[in-house]
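Record pair follows.
FIRST:
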Amino acid sequence: MSTPLPPSWPHCAHGAGPADPIGCRGIHVPGHSVCLAHLTDADRDSYLAGLAPRAEIDHRGTTFTSTLLAALQNALYDSATGIIRFGGAQFEFATFEGGAQFETVTFEGGAQFNHTTFKGGAQFESAIFKGYAQFIGATFEGDAQFIGATFESDARFVAANFCRAWFTRSTFGDIAQFHGATFGEVARFPNATFKHKASFDYTTFKRNAWFKDATFEGGIDFEYATFERNAWFKDAT
């Protein structure tokens, strides 16, 4: 039998035992030997109190409840603008157990959600990604809502797995890569704007795909894409 490999970062290991020799894969909170989810209440409050808008966040491998995510975002709330502002954000291999609310959030630096699992809805409506946005290999088990989101740099959803996805009125300012992604149910890109190359090569659309009124200003690639139902491009440019 193969032994699962531990993550490349110092990890929490909470709950490790014979059945799971690695335990919790959450990265250590600076100055502690456990992840954010397994800090004591006092230590968590102290860590969050030390954060400020535009802070660099690294919570790879951590499991978030809706309450824990809200507490982290409250620490990054910019009262002058009324906006939650992340600096660089690393959530690779993290798990969001409840709804992941990132609505109207601004990511000032790169946002990494590679191999992240969203068990509930993922709300990124009107979010702004000023740096690169990476959702490579991410799994969206519920609704993935990027309605009105703005991606100013590269947006990479390579090999991502979507159940229902909304990118209505989203703006992609640079390369948009959906290479090898799978859309299980809804795939909606109406009124989306792609200012640079959009790649949907090897992408699978299991239900209807909507690109009505979408604008493609750069190249677009659907090489080896699979549309199992209808594909709507009415009034696309």
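SECOND:
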Amino acid sequence: MAYDKALAERIRDALSGEDDVEEVKMFGGLSFMVNGKLAASANSHGNIMVRCDPDRVDELLTHKGASWPEMRGKPMGKGWIVVDRTGTSSNVEFDAWIKEALDFVH
């Protein structure tokens, strides 16, 4: 299964302080589970998919690079955001997305 290895390494590094992190190949990429819950996923296009509070989705979609994820051509339910490279180019932006995911899965 193809995924962006540099992005996966960034996610891995960001989650290094967390307990119970597991890497699983799914969603066409490499997903990172925290405490048994999917937190983030790296795909082959360099996009990160993050789990988030469904009540925050509308606001999060206003951020640079953020979009509604699709699975097999159909929109996924609220609680997921895909962010392309333009929205994770700085460490501050990237870390904010990881924080969104961790806030939800904790």
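COMMENT: The first strand starts at residue 21 and ends at 26.
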